[in-house]
Specification:
Elements: E1 3-17, H1 24-31, E2 37-47, E3 52-62, E4 66-73
Antiparallel strand pairs: 1-2, 2-3, 3-4
Length: 78
């Protein structure tokens, strides 16, 4: 991970569920069977160079498995 999430993720919403997730087979193979959702939200992140930004994040989440594979979607909000 090339960034660290600082604080809470806000404005979280679901983008896709189940078969609409293109990476569903890979997620099940890596992390196990679950009710997978692709989600997005906004959080403050600290990049490797030490700068802090507000950014939109995307991740996958399943009940009992948790949040996996966070990605920053550029451009940064601030």
């Amino acid at each position: 991970m090339d960034f660290e999430i600082i604080g809470e993720i806000t404005k979280a919403e679901t983008i896709a569920t189940g078969r609409l997730i293109h990476a569903l087979a890979r997620l099940r193979k890596l992390y196990g069977k679950g009710r997978w959702r692709k989600r997005k939200g906004v959080a403050t992140v600290r990049l490797d160079d030490g700068t802090m930004h507000t950014a939109e994040l995307h991740w996958y989440e399943a009940h009992g498995i948790g949040k996996k594979e966070f990605k920053i979607k550029f451009p940064l909000i601030d």
